[in-house]
Write a structure and sequence with these properties.
Elements: E1 2-6, E2 11-16, E3 19-29, E4 32-40, H1 49-63, E5 67-70, H2 73-81
Parallel strand pairs: 4-5
Antiparallel strand pairs: 1-2, 2-3, 3-4
InterPro entries: Acyl_CoA_acyltransferase (IPR016181), Gcn5-rel_NAT (IPR045057), GNAT_dom (IPR000182), GNAT_YJDJ (IPR031165)
Domain N-acetyltransferase: 1-90, 4-90
Protein name: N-acetyltransferase
């Protein structure tokens, strides 16, 4: 599995042999990243792929000195699971 950032459309993709199996959608405004959606194809769920997508977005926010608003429920769960990432919460 490979994570790919598509900056011009505000997405992170999870690819398996070049086939999209997961997606995270975000928007950035005034140095605040809002994670609005994270989803993985049903067959691949339970493998922490969505979690990896959210963590990649958090890392991107940290590298750009952005704050993060976890608007999607799964992104909120990831922040609960990883208290060390909460420093970027808006």
């Amino acid at each position: 599995m490979e994570l790919t950032h598509v900056a011009d459309s505000g997405r992170w993709l999870a690819l398996n042999d070049e086939v999209q199996i997961g997606e995270l959608i975000y928007q950035v405004e005034d140095n605040v990243m809002t994670i609005s959606h994270a989803e993985v194809e049903p067959f691949y769920r339970g493998n922490k792929i969505a979690e990896e997508l959210v963590l990649a977005a958090i890392q991107q926010a940290r590298e750009n000195a952005w704050k993060v608003v976890p608007a999607c429920s799964f992104a909120k769960i990831v922040f609960e699971r990883y208290p060390g990432e909460q420093d970027v919460l808006a």
